[in-house]
Amino acid sequence: MYERKTPLTIDCGLHLTKEVLNGKWKPAILRAISMDVKRPSEILRLFPGATRRVLNVQLKELEGHGMIEKKTYPQLPPKVEYSLTEIGWSLMPIIEAMNQWGDANRSFLEKVIKNAPKISETSKSACQIYRHMTVAQKIG
Amino acid sequence: MYERKTPLTIDCGLHLTKEVLNGKWKPAILRAISMDVKRPSEILRLFPGATRRVLNVQLKELEGHGMIEKKTYPQLPPKVEYSLTEIGWSLMPIIEAMNQWGDANRSFLEKVIKNAPKISETSKSACQIYRHMTVAQKIG
DNA sequence: TGTCATAGGGATAATTTTATCCCATATAGG
DNA sequence: CCTATATGGGATAAAATTATCCCTATGACA
């Protein structure tokens, strides 16, 4: 861990929300948990592109921000399950909207993103969340 | 500019959306433009916490991603106005939702964010967008 | 005795993003 | 001549995030 050196901007709600969702896999993690993929090892398998280390760190931050809760079962090998808190659930409409917007505009977005000068390669093999059911009902 | 070395994850819509919104001021910039704060100098004044350089860079990326359009008036001193494209407008419900979620949960979020170990200081003086009207009607 | 599964985290390197500083254009006004 | 306005961007430093590698623990199983 390090200590932030530039003051964190929390002026408008946008920046607060951004801080919570700020992390390469955080929205995806929240979405996974909302779809009952709740054990760390399951989440890890869901995102082959992510490192175990990073997922651990981001899970811990989400927990620290009160978006998820952790339940540890006193077993061996250990068993841990995460679940969304109430405020965590309240984020789901936003995350689902982001997901839908991205999918709805996929062809356009892939084009413009690949045209961006700094991009040399993209990866599509990472997320396997499509195998799981949608959560639309739950957040309806 | 640099060249990205790790492949960009674009597996699910979430990651595509994240890529577009990925930038300290991008959601705020889009929101500003949606509220008719469209000239670079105006946007800059709106976010005292942001550098001119960063806003330029992020505006350019948003333009490159097709979220905003730039109109340059052949004048001196130069005059430039940005506006949202159609797809840029289609992002506004998400951005407004993020803003509202952050504001609705402000007291809780400020608490947990400040408790996070890596935070030492926060800044609240940056965004002055509250002086402007809401855009609710426009995206209704 | 090896090896696997499951979870957690330290130390450090690499990458990516932001910040800082400086220069350029061209006109108007004191 | 200096200053201000308005916009854009290069070069480099600093900060923040992610990646890589390694070590911990313990029971089950071949």
UniProtKB/TrEMBL annotation, chains A, B:
Residues 12-110 form the HTH hxlR-type domain. The keyword Transferase does not apply. GO terms for molecular function: DNA binding. This is HxlR family transcriptional regulator. It comes from Chitinophaga ginsengisoli. It holds the Pfam family HxlR. Keywords: DNA-binding, Transcription, Transcription regulation.
